UniProtKB/TrEMBL annotation, chains A, B:
Pfam families: NUDIX (PF00293), Nudix_hydro (PF18290). This is Nudix hydrolase domain-containing protein. InterPro entries: NUDIX_hydrolase-like_dom_sf (IPR015797), Nudix_hydrolase6-like (IPR003293), NUDIX_hydrolase_dom (IPR000086), Pre-Nudix (IPR040618). Belongs to the Nudix hydrolase family. PANTHER family: FI03680P, NUDIX HYDROLASE RELATED. GO terms for molecular function: ADP-ribose diphosphatase activity; NAD binding; NADH pyrophosphatase activity.
Length: 237, 237
């Protein structure tokens, strides 16, 4: 063990000298969990932490005497609240949760957009409802999330496209359709101005007065990157 | 060194046993950089990585035989593109960059909202322009950012409130005001449909036809959290 560490330290120092002569700048080491004994060795040589995921930690070192130009670590978590309505203009209410304006768990959207994530989440949470994405109604820009991070909560509207609008109770959750007016007037949905406003916007939008951001897929200046752009539909036509 | 590690391992195992008897669930260890020798010890005991910042790595362990309910690591980087106009309806153009629709560097917004970040960035990048936030015109939801993360780029409009509209060359950047029509017609701003659309939206919005999301500050259900909600101004009045 101790020999492995010594050999790694010597090899790392030799490599850094060579890379410095070659004009290299940033050096990354991705250390898998089962090689964790190399972490203190790299730190001792002068590396610092960049980020970590469950199975590895990424260390970085900057060779020149200049300020490092190293990409920032991720700073935000992202969540969604889905408002789902059907062709009869009813809202989807999920039992024991706060209704259509339901905060789902924060989830990782790596490799997945807001639109795709919202559709998937609604399907998973209701067990059987397929939807099409209508728009982002608004979003909360919040701070002081765990670990000093920030978070976004996107409020999305989706239209049910399931031919069968009868929602069945499932192990995942019990859900039913409710007239929008009935839903909006429930005491719990009158508790905060924000919730009232959001429901008001969603109700207006169900009646065709869209004021949110719809998505334009496939917008990217770089073919390696999958992305979508969200802006007012009034402009994006 | 080796003794420290052995003592830490023994102490950690004893603590885990005690916490298990007490019904504790998640256990966190924040290991500062100068204590990196404890990282492989904790990993050996069964901890895994949660996240890391330059000066520390956070390790986590889940005691029960159930699925861990541990907050996700941050998944998104956030950047801004600022479109700045003045009381004469001119756009701010920054030399050697892509004009008003200028991608600034990705920056961390920890403890800072989109609105505050945009105002600060414009001030820093132009050296002297003070602005007020008008709205989020749209945003890009992109994937395959470095390290498998995703990113958001928020396109924001800001109105100059500096009484002196003469922009001076500074060390930071050279900037000047330009008639919006002249700016929009520049070949580089006609290159992509998205850029054309964005500039078209911004130009329309300068003329008072706002279609973006303006922010409502101080919206939060939790007094520990600072946050703002962004939605259509047509609804937020």
């Amino acid at each position: 063990m101790q020999n492995d560490a010594s050999r790694f330290a010597a090899s790392l120092k030799a490599s850094l000298s060579q890379w410095a002569r070659q004009g290299k700048k940033g050096v990354w080491i991705k250390v898998p969990k089962d090689q964790a004994k190399l972490v203190p060795v790299a730190i001792e040589v002068g590396f610092w932490y960049h980020h970590a995921e469950p199975s590895y930690v990424m260390l970085v070192y900057w060779i020149p005497q200049t300020s490092p130009t190293i990409p920032d670590n991720a700073s935000h978590q992202v969540g969604i609240a889905a408002f789902v309505f059907n062709e009869e203009g009813q809202a989807l209410v999920v039992q024991e949760k706060s209704g259509p304006y339901k905060h789902s768990r924060l989830w990782k959207m790596q490799g997945e957009g807001i639109k795709e994530g919202a559709i998937r989440e609604v399907h998973e949470e209701t067990g059987n409802i397929d939807t099409e994405f209508v728009e982002v109604v608004g979003f909360r820009d919040g701070h002081n999330a765990p670990f000093g991070k920030s978070d976004f909560l996107f409020v999305c509207m989706l239209r049910s496209v399931s031919s069968n609008i009868v929602v069945q109770d499932t192990e995942i959750s019990a859900a039913k359709w409710m007239a929008i007016e009935e839903f909006a007037s429930q005491p719990k949905n009158q508790q905060s101005k924000l919730l009232k406003d959001m429901i008001g916007i969603c109700c207006a939008n169900v009646k065709g007065r869209s004021k949110g951001f719809s998505g334009i897929a496939g917008i990217s200046s770089n073919s390696r990157r999958s992305s979508a752009f969200y802006c007012s539909a009034l402009h994006s036509q």
